[in-house]
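User: Fold this one for me? It's RNA-binding S4 domain-containing protein.
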Amino acid sequence: MENIYISTEYIKLDQLLKFVNAVEGGGMAKNVILDGLVKVNGEVELQRGKKLREGDIVEFNGEEYIISTEEK
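Assistant: Here's what I get for RNA-binding S4 domain-containing protein.
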């Protein structure tokens, strides 16, 4: 599981996928989310604008990312 540090209150799901280089761009992020390939906290998430906050866990393509507001 990879810690992802954000300095804001939240990050949107599609932005996170681009930030961690899990997808090549916004269009690809939109497609993988709408295709049901991304989970947030264990549930399939279809909203690309889903706001992720500290403690949320995103699963995609065999990788897990946990959102953190403090660098560890």
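One thing worth pointing out: The chain has a mean pLDDT of 93.
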